[in-house]
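[Automated response] Your request has been received and processed.

Submitted sequence:
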Amino acid sequence: MGPLAALWALLVPALLGGVVASEVIPHVNECSLCFHCNVDAKPPPLLASDLVPANFQPRNVTHKQKLPICHTCRGCTVHLTLHGSSGQKKLFNTWFRDEVGASPSWLFVAPTDKTPNRKAIVKVACIPVGKHARHKFAQCHADLALKYAKIYLAIEKLAENCGLTDIIPKIWVDWVDAVIPEVGYHIRWLGLWMEMVEGISLENL
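Generated structure:
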């Protein structure tokens, strides 16, 4: 083998390795923030033992903050849309915008196969990013989030037993592994999922 051929034999694998390395997309768990997360994973099944306060709030916050900021990542289980920017409705010749909610908890719209219209509103507590100026440093009350989740689950069970599922929106608790649009914060804990139905909320009236 001549010198030139030997040089190419050394350079080509190195060049190809560089190309492959540059195309590796980090997992969302490897990022402090991620602004575009590919939905290519499935959430684990929810167990009764998962309904504890620790699963309604973030974990390993200090470690997460030390990780790099990612433009694109992978490993999310759902794509979230901010509920306040998801659209508007017209009722009685008046337009109403979808609101962001009055509490510190964030509201999102997410796709799901558990509702007829394949959409759900997801309420997530304990996000350490304020959605309102007055909630710049929102406090986390994971115990209250769990308490209210259990109340809603009891209402859902009552509706099922009494045959009222046609008039009461479906409610369930499930894992959320996604990033907040435009913010990039990684949510990786339980949220309250609710069937998205037609109409406007009392907050809009």
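Summary generated for your ticket: Residues 6-22 have pLDDT under 50 and may be disordered. The helical segments are 3-22, 61-65, 142-161.
If you did not submit this request, please reply to this message.
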